[in-house]
Amino acid sequence: MNDLDGALKYLSNSGPEFGPGVSNHGPMAAEALGQLGHTAAIGAWVSSYRKVLYEDTYGRFQEITHDNWRPALGNMRLLGDWTEFFRRELDGAAWTDVLARWWPRLLPGFAAGGGHGVIRTGHAVRMLKESTGPWRIEELARGLGYWAARYQELPEEPSTPRKRDLAQAWEAVPKLRSNQGMGMIFRIRLETVWLEPDFAPAVDSLRPEDDADRALSRLTRAAAGSYLTDDHTTPMAFVHALTTPAAVRLVLPSLPTELHWPSVTAAVRFSAAIRSAYGTGQREHHPEEPAQDYVTLAERALATEDPHAIKYVEACRREDRLSPDPSYATAATDWVRRCETGSF
Predict the structure, then answer these.
(1) Cα angle 17-113-88, degrees, rounded to a multiple of 5
(2) pLDDT digits (tens, 9 = 90+) for 2-26
(3) What's the CA gap between 240 and 230, in Å, rounded?
(4) Would you tell me how many other CB atoms lie within 10 Å of the CB of residue 307?
(5) Is the torsion defined by CA of 11, 332, 235, 208 positive or negative?
């Protein structure tokens, strides 16, 4: 099982969530391990992680079709039906065609599962770009199915004048004034963003750009910076404020160009919602240790066995290579240390 396809097969009877609603990170972290050069460790890691996962017990209740899919969005009871629907879709068309058709339909529900519908889909796309195979196609069906079943929208204000660049829009994100739903299950906390009237105008003031990749770099850099210097006590949330837009980047080359900027704006909205719900403000970052190189960080992340450490190191490394900035390695070093010490 020391390969990605074997890991996907081994995890295939595990459910999409466990515990109080934590997303199953197995396929995503296994794929990230390969990207970090630790393919030989995938089998042992997956064997250990599988012990915390629940069995996939989602049944079939209603056949989802092209005529009735919209009312089924956001119904987790229909997860089995959604996954089966996407299996049929992928059996009848190229995976890139299915992705291009369903990505814009699911995009308004970007916050699904605290962003993990998007992240799981992004990792599945990267797998398929390297090689196709039945377990990789199945993983895309599961990623899209989870996204559809946990579909969750965030507030929008389309009439807002779009006059701010990304840095200005990020700075304008308001602190959520309610502590309702505060906790580590992001989808619950993010429901409260609807109570903040200033959130949507701040996000929707973002001015469109021609270069979606460059905008994503600015967003992930802002997320790394907020991880380090926002006045927050939930670094786990800010890990996902970076890994989710980083997953969007994995998908963009497989999407029509006209979907690139809407994908960026959805990613900005999600990461800004994380900031509104968990952060804003300002504090000084006093590092416990100097920023480490990514080879060392990958080894340390693997040693923790924590999927968030593995995924965050891989995403920070990738973003740092595309648009170098010291905040990525500094944030990754801090997060790995927290995973090592349980201080997250």
Answers:
(1) 80
(2) 599 999 999 999 999 998 889 999 9
(3) 15
(4) 22
(5) negative
Residue 250, both tokens: 């994995």
User: pLDDT per residue over 56-69, tens digit each?
Assistant: 888 888 999 999 99
**Angle of helix 307-322 versus helix 326-341 axis, rounded to 10:** 170
Give the three-class secondary structure for 157: coil
Distance CA 344, CA 339 (A): 7
Report the SS3 class of residue 248.
helix
d(CA 315, CA 334) in angstroms, rounded, equals 14
Contacts of residue 105, defined as CB under 8 A and 6 or more positions apart, other chains included, come to none
Beta carbons of 183 and 22 less than 8 angstroms apart: no
Retrieve residue 146's tokens.
Answer: 């989870």
Instruction: Please give the Cα distance from 235 to 254 (Å, whole number).
Output: 31
Query: For residue 249, what are its two tokens?
Result: 């980047």
What is the radius of gyration, based on Cα positions, of the chain?
19
